[in-house]
Amino acid sequence: MSRVVKLKHVKREIELDDFSQPTDNQEIVKIISSKGNNLHEVESALGMNKFLVSMPTKFRKNVWIKRGNFVIVERIPEGDKVKAEIVRILTDEHIKEFTKDGIWPKEFTKKRCHEESDDDLDNFKGNLNRKTLDVSEEESSSSESE
Question: S1-like domain: which residues (predicted)?
Answer without folding.
Answer: 25-88
